[in-house]
């Protein structure tokens, strides 16, 4: 059984995973979203449609597992906020949680 702190951390990580999946689907995969254009081009421009679909599936699958144990994983306390940071495949990935544990920002980028 998890102690209260462990349960809180697990809830924060799961919220971050949901935010990351949402960011992938609504920013990176959505061709009408200009915010994701640079990363979308870097990831998908030179791939055929089948390998684009495979990469989308892999990114979402990895996002579902992202958290402690991911490469370069760390949780940084910054004031009353927490930044969860690590690698998703080889992409720099951050999720910012406010003091109440709500998602303030998610980001995936090339270094």
Topology:
Layout lengths: L3 H25 L8 H8 L4 H17 L8 E5 L2 E8 L2 E7 L5 E7 L2
Summary tags:
elongated, alpha+beta, 111 residues, 45% helix, four-stranded antiparallel beta sheet
Explain what this protein looks like in three dimensions:
The protein has 111 residues and is an alpha+beta fold. It has one domain (4-109). It contains three helices and four strands; from the N terminus they run αααββββ. The chain has helices spanning 4-28, 37-44, 49-65, and strands at 74-78, 81-88, 91-97, 103-109. The chain has a four-stranded antiparallel beta sheet with strand order 1-2-3-4, with helices on one face. β3 and β4 form a beta hairpin. The protein is elongated, with a radius of gyration of 15 Å. The model has no long low-confidence stretch (mean pLDDT 91).
């Amino acid at each position: 059984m998890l102690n209260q702190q462990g349960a809180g951390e697990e809830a924060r990580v799961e919220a971050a995973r949901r935010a990351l999946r949402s960011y992938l689907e609504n920013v990176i995969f959505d061709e009408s979203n200009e915010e994701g254009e640079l990363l979308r081009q870097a990831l998908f421009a030179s791939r055929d449609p089948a390998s684009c679909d495979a990469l989308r599936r892999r990114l979402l699958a990895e996002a579902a597992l992202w958290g402690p144990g991911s490469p370069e994983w760390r949780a940084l306390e910054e004031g009353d906020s927490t930044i969860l940071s690590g690698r998703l495949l080889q992409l720099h990935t951050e999720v910012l949680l406010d003091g109440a544990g709500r998602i303030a920002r998610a980001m995936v980028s090339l270094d």
